[in-house]
């Protein structure tokens, strides 16, 4: 008789999403791909927002900060990196990294060259498939020794766990405004970036 236990164990739970495993290959987005990255950003940014945030504030942020025009600007700036992982229908994950001296971020790094990991988002159908890890590894490699830091909503436990597993430590806080609502972000830095 067939092993019924194994068949049941290997079957996904009712309602669970199944995605085929994919090899997450990261590449730098090219001019002309701003619309595809902006569409992914519009799908993924709301998922990281606190549920209490009014949807109109989220929509306004997406329209002004994650628009095709904004990604065109990032793609044209040699100090900015838009890294993507492609799926069958376009990008399924992206990272936006701003290289340079920044007025915000970890106090020890302000005014010095660093890599601000401004955005790292993955389509929910590809969560757990290695896309975020591949993007973060590419960000580290691209930083070429520059300190890497980011801001994450203080209440985003899932993202904070991922970054902690990846070697980030808390280095302060900052305010982050979406629409008319201001939140507290934890500022995280790769622990070797500030000598922790």
Q: Count of helical segments? A: 6
The global form is: globular
Kindly state the percentage of residues in helix.
25-40%
> Element order, helices and strands?
HEHHHEEEHEHEE
Give the overall average pLDDT: 85
What Rg do the Cα atoms give?
A: 18 Å
Described by strand count, sense and barrel closure, the largest sheet is: 7 strands, mixed
Strand order of the largest sheet: 1-2-3-4-5-7-6
Look at the helices and sheets and give the structural class: alpha+beta
Sequence stretches where pLDDT stays below 50 over 5 or more residues: 1-20
Query: Strand content of the residues, in percent?
Result: 25-35%
* Distance between the first and last residues' Cα: 58 Å
Number of strand elements: 7
């Amino acid at each position: 008789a067939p092993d019924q236990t194994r068949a049941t164990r290997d079957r996904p739970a009712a309602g669970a999403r199944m995605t085929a495993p994919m090899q997450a290959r990261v590449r730098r987005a090219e001019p002309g791909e701003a619309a595809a990255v902006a569409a992914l950003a519009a799908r993924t940014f709301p998922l990281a927002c606190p549920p209490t945030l009014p949807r109109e504030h989220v929509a306004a942020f997406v329209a002004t900060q994650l628009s095709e025009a904004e990604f065109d600007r990032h793609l044209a700036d040699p100090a900015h990196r838009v890294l993507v992982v492609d799926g069958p229908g376009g990008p399924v994950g992206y990272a936006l990294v701003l290289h340079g001296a920044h007025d915000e971020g970890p106090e020890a790094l302000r005014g010095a060259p660093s890599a601000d990991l401004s955005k790292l988002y993955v389509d929910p159908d590809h969560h757990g498939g290695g896309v975020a890890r591949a993007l973060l590894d590419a960000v580290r490699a691209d930083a070429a020794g520059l300190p890497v830091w980011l801001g994450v909503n203080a209440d985003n436990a899932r993202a904070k766990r991922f970054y902690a597993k990846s070697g980030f430590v808390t280095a302060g806080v900052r305010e982050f405004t979406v629409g008319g609502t201001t939140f507290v972000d934890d500022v995280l830095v790769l622990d070797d970036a500030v000598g922790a």
